[in-house]
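Write out the 3D structure for:
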Amino acid sequence: MANATPRGNTLLSIWNWTAVLLVSIVGFFIQLLLWLVTIFDRNRRLPGRWYRIMGYSAAAIGGSWRFSVVGPLPASPPRRAVVVSNHQSQADPFLISRLPWEMKWLGKKSLFRIPFVGWCMWLAGDIPLVRGDRGSAKGAMDLCATYLQRDMPVMIFPEGTRSRDRRLLPFKSGAFRLAIENQADVLPVAVAGTHYALPKGSWKVGRSRGVVVVGEPISTVGMTLDDVDRLSEMARTRIEELRLRAIPHSSEAGEPLPFDEPAASAQPADAQHVAAQHVDADAAAGA
């Protein structure tokens, strides 16, 4: 099992970030070629998918993170869907990228300015956002809506930032408003274990066993904007249930559950029973 405390080793961290840098540099030029040969694809599907492969490849090369997909995946790749997940760490994208479909990520605009990494995000067609800027938020949501109308899923962390203690932060309404306005499904996803991979506020990498679990889509057919809060609460409940499936397979196994008591007791099956029913699907992503 991974370290019980979210502390990283300096030399290990330097190696892991070097691996990310090397993969980003080499991968960028391949991605640029893919972008050029598919320049008329407005969804940038191939350059985007290549960037996700770069992400989980960098994590594997670094050697500190054992990331996998646990449990069943949707029978068919999501199309018009807003994918929402809890957010524990900057390592979350490396883990969620193991899911076997392309989706466009909403991310801080500052990330797009990082050499090679940010350029790759742009080539992938990801969506920049300046926090607190209404104009930027509107432009980002408009671009998300455009992707949804083209049957390209978008990936949003509804908490808006990373949790320091693994507990779910309050959800912002944007992802759920977007889903209702475009009559898109909401696909709940949960991650566990990444808190130890790269804790918020630290650049040091820790050894971690991280897993991602995917739930059933929530339909928004017939919903109006009056249902935004209800949809948000439905997604939050699903994500907490999914985390109970994920935790026994992750670095968080044996740790106190990151839920208030009512949220934890809402799940009728105990963690060991749930864990026994789910098979580790490491690399199910074609990863």
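The longest strand covers residues 185-192.
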